[in-house]
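User: Show me an example of a complex going from sequences to structure tokens.

Assistant: Sure. Here are the input components:
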Amino acid sequence: SQQGEEDPQALSIQEGENATMNCSYKTSINNLQWYRQNSGRGLVHLILIRSNEREKHSGRLRVTLDTSKKSSSLLITASRAADTASYFCATGTSGTYKYIFGTGTRLKVLA
Amino acid sequence: NAGVTQTPKFQVLKTGQSMTLQCAQDMNHEYMSWYRQDPGMGLRLIHYSVGAGITDQGEVPNGYNVSRSTTEDFPLRLLSAAPSQTSVYFCASRTGTEWGEKLFFGSGTQLSVL
């Protein structure tokens, strides 16, 4: 399987704390994207980082990419109860048009 | 804005039955794809299309057929449903066929095969 893996599988934190989740992948990539899924709903795009970038910010989100280790991390700062969701990374496989998703991290933010 | 529309939202089939999951997008996106989501497995790519008349296989294509006769529609056909196809199915589309474009997802079809 080409799937990436995310860790932790589940994360529970208090409101106001930071949440960090990691994604590892197996193949060379053009870019890596993070998506959010609220329970029972479709995925929503959060942020994209290209293979020649090391860090990117968007509001309370910070994404890093280490292509030498084939890994990425997503940091959500000052978390809110509304951030409770599952988070997935997706990689673009070089030479194809496929997006491959990781197994996801379930984040629970306690009020 | 409709975006990506999937129908039906829920479906129960008996083993051996066939059915078509519908996906339509109104954003003039060239790229469309189907994923299935199973607990602990994340999303797995079934089939994708980079334009009308062009389709290709993803990670788990067996048991599924697709066609793309128009830019807007990308139906997924289950030829002979099996319990292993019980899953939540998502259709996703994006503009262009170059890298760096985000996917837009439908709200999903929950399928149970008895």
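The lines above are the inputs; the final block is the predicted structure for all two components together. The CA atoms of residues 20 and 91 of chain B lie 13 Å apart.
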